[in-house]
Design goal:
mainly alpha; 71% helix
């Protein structure tokens, strides 16, 4: 029994039906949570060490590494029954959509730092860090996540291709 099925088996029936219906979105959210940890871990490591004066650059590097992790997890788990394109074409589309999402993610952080001057010496270090987290890791990430989910389903892993990448068990059945 897969991890998702064993977790769903412990969920009350009314909620289980909703989760099964939106299983793909649930998996996408788990991948997003994982890449959120990767992104922020790398961002703060870079931002508090070698890229202390360049938080937007540090965030861009962290997001790019998280995007690679996201591709592997989304392709092999979240959207494994979708798509059907050749891997190189699919990867190119994935990274194109993710590139646009990186820009979307960086806009709030850039505005916070360089338009609203929420950085030392204009504000305290604490205010700067809270503003960075709120704009770079919450607002920017939520905007980029919505765009990615839509873009991945629409262009990268579409159902319209008519063939499944793998012969996967029927995902619509709820565990008993």
């Amino acid at each position: 029994m897969a991890v998702v099925e064993s977790v769903l088996a412990r969920v009350p029936q009314p909620l289980r039906a909703v989760l099964v219906k939106h299983r793909e979105l649930l998996k996408f959210a788990v991948v997003g949570g994982t890449t959120f940890v990767v992104d922020n871990g790398i961002w703060y490591l870079l931002k508090l060490t070698i890229l202390a004066t360049k938080p937007t650059t540090a965030k861009a590097i962290a997001i790019m590494i998280a995007v690679v992790v996201s591709y592997v997890l989304n392709r092999e788990w979240s959207f494994r029954t979708r798509g059907g394109r050749e891997r190189a074409h699919e990867a190119a589309l994935f990274f194109l959509v993710s590139g646009v999402a990186i820009v979307i993610n960086l806009i709030p952080l850039y505005l916070s730092r360089y338009v609203f001057d929420l950085e030392v010496p204009h504000v305290s270090r604490f205010v700067q860090e809270v503003a960075d987290f709120a704009t770079g890791s919450v607002i920017g990430m939520l905007l980029a996540m919505a765009f990615r989910f839509w873009g991945f389903r629409r262009w990268v892993f579409p159902d319209e291709l008519g063939r499944k990448r793998r012969d996967a068990p029927a995902e619509a059945e709820a565990p008993r």
